[in-house]
Amino acid sequence: MTTSVIPSAARPAAGSGRLYLRRFARNRGALLGVALFALLVLFSAFGGLFSPYAPTDADFTALTQPPGAAHYFGTNQGGNDVYAQAVHGLQRSLVIAVSVSALTIVLAALIGAGAAYLGGRVEKLTLAVIHFLLVVPSFLILALVSHRLAGDWRVLIVVLTVFGWMTTARVVWSLSTSLRERDYVLAAEFMGVRPWRIVVRHIIPNLGSLLVVNLTLGVVATVLSETALSFLGFGVQTPDVSLGTMLADGSGTITSAPWLFVFPAGLVVLLTVSMTLVGDGLRDALDPTSVSAASGGAR
Amino acid sequence: MSITLAPAPERPAPGGGPAPVLSVRDLRITFPSEAGPVEAVRGVSFDVLPGRTLGIVGESGSGKSATAMGVMGLLPPTARMSGEVLLGGRDLVGLDDTRLSRVRGREIGMVFQDPLSALTPIFSVGRLLSDALRVHQSLSKQAAWERAVELLDLVGIPEPRRRARSFPHEFSGGMRQRVVIALAMANAPSVIVADEPTTALDVTVQAQILDVLRTAQAETGAGVVLITHDLGVVAGYADEVAVMYAGRIVERAGVDALFRRPTMPYTIGLLGAVPRPDAPQDRPLVPIGGEPPSLVALPTGCPFADRCPAVLDRCRTAEPEAVPVAGHGQVACLRAEEIADGRLRADALFPAPAGSTVDTGTTGEVVLRVSGLAKTFPVTKGAFLKRRTGTLHAVSDVEFDLRAGETLGLVGESGSGKTTTLLEVLRLRPPERGRIEVAGTDVAGPLPADRLRELRGAVQIVMQDPMGSLDPRLTVFQLLAEPLQAVGVDRPAVRARVAELLGLVGLDASVTERFPAALSGGQRQRVGIARALATRPRIVVLDEPVSALDVSVQAGVVNLLTRLKRELGLAYLVVAHDLAVMRHFADRIAVMYLGHVVESGSTEALFTDPRHPYTEALLSAIPVPDPRRERTRERIVLDGEQPSATDLPQGCVFVDRCPLYRRLTDDGLRERCRTQRPALGPAAPGSDHRHACHAR
């Protein structure tokens, strides 16, 4: 018999989803983050409609113009419209960040939880690979590989995923080793449920909160590393633009033509801040030990 | 054993008797929650007299632990508390933490359920004790250490001077709890609050610890508040008992009056639902219908009304106040007078459900045969290069048969190998040594995949903790569908079978879309049972099936299992540490000690005529929920605890703790006990009752 100070009284009637939503909605920062992120997504999708220029259009009558009525964010040295480029760059960065983050989480969850559940030689080998990849200077390899592959943004997604799953996989692995010992996992085993089904149905869903939080924070990390790669010239290649290439181009003229740097930099900041807020909000809402969660029929 | 402790201050009371050391008046405690405030304690009042013990009993969620925490000022900061907690005339409610710290430890001693987490792991126990002394008294380090050693001696730690330098993890569970009691009594408090002090301990150790607690009480003259769910412990230990239900004390009386003449229907029901080790096997366990109410937004009226067989319309309009009833103490029930003077017969309130008794009827063929089973685990040392330093003999040479329609109980204390035995059976792999035959098939032989799957379906498990064994992220439907999908049942058949299963265990079809967290403890265990039955098994393995449940719910689950066994012709292999429950549940029992079966036989034979000295001691250690019997019966209190199974003695595994061995005078027999492992032999030729002892 367990005795807890907090009696089991409040039993949420309809699942836990609504409870999480309620707790999330109570967090103002998180709501702000969601609103901000939604605005950024809308901007990247439909922002182009408000400007007659395409990101590749060069207006030779207006080189390095400050923001004005014709070019909202000004133009760069080649006469490209910075507004159109920012919309396109944001779109490119968002697509890369969200897909890399999602792929990374899926890969990390399957590998980490699978290794932990299967144990034995599989586990040892997987951990060896993870540890090896963690000590390899991945950024350098990333830079070299993506340069070789001519900077197609789809290749960039693959490369960033391949070198980005290890840390999360290691965390998933260590949490899964304790889930492996849970009674319900044992019960499933005795019912004859097959190993991979146990991993997918019983282990990974119970890491849900960790994975969701990591998904949002992974977006932040990917935006930053894509930006860094592109800034160094290894990421997205011209004529394609991303926020990173724009920052790289604008950084040289930060005193003479600050708008070339300020707008993409501002978008990067807004994007990372919004995702961090959402991530924090999700963590608090899903964490059963947080103060506001001190009920919910915990026996 | 001599020790000087400051005597408890005697305060003359106006009434002539001693003044209470602790008075609680109208204590109310509320916790915030998502669904609204949880009213955990709703107006509790009691007095504790010096040298006396007040037992507070109740089921989980009754508010007994919250009351204890409130008295000690250890509630989480989000909780709100009102009322009065008068300790020596001073109100503790509203004191800040600094002031409370001066009171805690000096005037209130505390004993918690889990002795390991109650002791800081990085200090030696001598240091913990001397620190506790020096916080409240001005003592030199040397003097405090000496006191600490004296205290350890007092609570029965052997070689206290040497053991004072040991760390908490170096002690066994029982020894740790002794240290916690030493800490609680160190500063001669006037009140000791013991919250489930023996719940985490084995039954033979429980008896020792209650004795130590008695010693501590005698030395300090403190009043004790003993909080427990175990009515047997209360019957043997408390002077006065308060029964809590839904945050209130519903009945408070002297221990004899309460057990002889319970007056509140809840108390009557509780006493009828508790399994008794001394009752004949055919005494039914009578559950109280329904479940305790949610403490959020309680309806007006008596909180027990919905479960009460004597409910009146008036009961639902206002909550009855506790009023004194002549010869019965304080009772919060509108019909207390009627029950007290016999107009309403207490024993007719809760009629026994039909078919709730153990049915030792026909048994069928043998469905499980285990012989010579052994399992060892390597003991390793070192984190990097693991060296094998020994072997843990978890199970040695275990054998038993299980027939269809039969319940076989494996009983023993923790570490006796009973759970390992279960897992070996469930694994369906060749055992390390010995044979396991399931439904006539030896699991050692290379089995074709379809036969193995068939066997998988034939052996299923119900686990101890229904919360832990049900995946929290799946709905009841998904949980019940899983074993069926695992053996390849198609969708419509799954749907039909799930509905059938819910009916079988008495659950409403409306629960299918709920998550385990939204169910009560009893409902969860019913889901666990339904899941085990999904594949129509022949053997169901039950690992402590009711020990996580409340007494009033437990009886219902035991009765359900008994009914299902009869209807479906199942065979149960049950592991339990609670022998009283087993008496009501099992047809046959095998008692295990250090991986060996020391005695086996029919439940009735084992309880009425135990042969092995360990069985005798184990049975004697179970507290009987009857104060008169509990206080007068002769009791065998074993020394020490079950040792680790790494170094098994050469002879009888029980020899080190055996009370019979100590009385033996025949040197030849003593020699055999020490050097020869006794084999399991029949008590009488041809008898099913077998035991392993040289001396009997």
Automatic annotation (TrEMBL), chain A:
Transmembrane segment boundaries: 30-50, 94-118, 125-147, 153-173, 211-236, 256-278
Domain of life, source organism: Bacteria
Domain (ABC transmembrane type-1) ranges: 90-279
BP terms from Gene Ontology: peptide transport; protein transport; transmembrane transport
SUPFAM superfamilies according to UniProt: MetI-like (SSF161098)
GO CC entries: plasma membrane
Membrane topology of this protein: Multi-pass membrane protein
Pfam entry (one): BPD_transp_1
UniProt keywords, alphabetically: Cell inner membrane, Cell membrane, Membrane, Peptide transport, Protein transport, Transmembrane, Transmembrane helix, Transport
Compartments where located: Cell inner membrane; Cell membrane
Family, per entry: Belongs to the binding-protein-dependent transport system permease family. OppBC subfamily.
The protein's name in its UniProt record: Oligopeptide transport system permease protein OppC
